[in-house]
Amino acid sequence: MISRRQLFLQHVGQTSDSPLQLEIQNAKGIYMYDTNGKSYIDLISGVSVSNVGHLHPRVVNAVKEQAEKYMHLMVYGEYIQTPQVEFARKLSKLLPDELTSTYFVNSGSEAIEGALKLAKRYTGRGEIIAFENAYHGSTHGALSIMGSEEFKNSFRPLLPGVKHIKFNIEEDLERITEETACVVIEPVQGEGGIRLPENDYLLKLRNRCDEKGALLIFDEIQTGFGRTGSLFAMHEFGVTPDIVAIAKAMGGGMPIGAFVSSNEIMSVFKTNPILGHITTFGGHPVSCAAANASLDVILEENIIADVKRKGELFKKYLKHPAIKEIRGIGLFMAVELKDFDQVKSVIDKMIEKGVVTDWFLFHDSAFRIAPPLIITDDEIVKACELINEAINEVCN
Fold first, then answer.
1. What is the reported pTM?
2. Which of 242, 277, 300 delimits the end of a domain?
3. How far apart are the first and last CA of the chain?
4. Which domain holds residue 253?
5. Span 150-204, pLDDT tens digits
């Protein structure tokens, strides 16, 4: 009889010749369990998705309750759907005052696409500036602003008028001009290996955008919903964008994304043309119900208050001469080793020991630590012991 593994390889579209092929049967909290009952500590949270842990009961109950009321009714923006309205209202209270209007989509890539369209439509300009080593998604617009030529070259032609500058290099801000519609930035670079802004860089970027009339777009798809120790990284650095793209942890495990801006900016989608941006499933009521529940968990259980302390625990207990550096903020960290070969060997060894992590697309000499925010102190100590063992076995 053909195995599920064979069926997976034959019928599910593949993106590499060597997928991990872990066959997970169920997951709960910070753990995933395979078909043999082996447990794995999830240190990547499905790439910053499972901030409240896997299968959180409040999220599961919200999904069940909403599914029993209604699911898809009509394309986005036509009907008043309670889960959408409630979640948009919560966001407007938690985000800076300027960010009042939420447009719901299905994913982070779609949030970026909508944000780019909105900026071009509002400013009437065509130039977009993004950053080297930045990742924003894989659709054509998001791919166009990705900061890696290797990932883009096979798919050209892409969007015209895109320029790339270097993160934290103040002189490059001079390239933002009156021709620039928007600048898109991750306030903390993710796939670049967890790079933080330095020397008030985000404030200087904000000021330059204001000076030239360009809109500032924050990609908070990975950093949102508590990952850095603040609800959003913009709170951490005290800089408000004109548009913010969010997704990943937003839905507590359900697919959802959004871009948020002011009512004034968002209103340009109403005319010339009417229906300036359209989505069928954006803001799906079940996903919005899950997002509501997940956000309530984050806020009511005060999860964010402990994120930075937990990050420091990882730095305290991850000790090995092979570790060159641990960079990051909150529970969003990169552990730097010698090179990719060493990182890959350590990741494989960690999987053997029941710990799941991965490397970064544009910085492959480090591995990621971004566990569910609910991870306990004891679980952190246990994870660090296993990581130290894996590094020791590979590097000694």
1. 0.96
2. 300
3. 43
4. 58-300
5. 989 999 999 999 999 999 999 999 999 999 999 999 999 999 999 999 999 999 9
Report the number of distinct structural domains present in the chain: 2
Which tens digits make up the pLDDT trace of 9-63? Answer: 677 777 667 767 788 899 999 999 999 999 999 999 999 999 999 999 999 999 9
Compute the mean pLDDT over every residue in the chain, rounded to the nearest whole number.
95
* Cross-strand bridge partners of residue 32: 27, 40
Question: What's the CATH number where 365 sits?
Answer: 3.90.1150.10
Are residues 191 and 135 in contact, defined by beta-carbon separation less than 8 angstroms? yes
Q: Are residues 127 and 259 in the same domain?
A: yes
- Please tell me the distance from the alpha carbon of residue 288 to that of residue 252, in angstroms, as a whole number: 10
Give the list of residues 6+ apart from residue 256 with CB closer than 8 angstroms, or none.
104, 105, 106, 107, 247, 250, 283, 284, 287, 288, 290, 291
- Residue 179, SS3? coil
In terms of DSSP bridges, do strands 39-42 and 101-105 run parallel, antiparallel, or are they unpaired?
Answer: unpaired
CB 194 within 8 A of CB 315: no
Q: Domain check: are 280 and 183 in the same one?
A: yes
* Residues 75 and 30 grouped into a single domain: no
Chain-centre distance for alpha carbon 134 = 12
pLDDT (0 to 100) of residue 40: 96
Query: Cα–Cα distances in Å, from 128 out to 70, 209, 296?
Result: 40, 12, 35
Residue 221 has pLDDT above 70, yes or no: yes
Report residue 203 as tokens.
């404030």
Of 292, 220, 282, 285, the residue nearest 251 (C-alpha) = 292
SS3 333: strand
Rounded CA-CA distance 96/216 in Å is 14
Asked whether 104 and 258 are in contact (CB, 8 A), the reply is: yes
pLDDT for position 161: 96
97 SS3 class = coil
User: Six-digit token pair at 22?
Assistant: 């872990």
E strand or H helix that includes residue 300: helix 285-300
C-beta neighbour count of 377 within 10 angstroms: 12
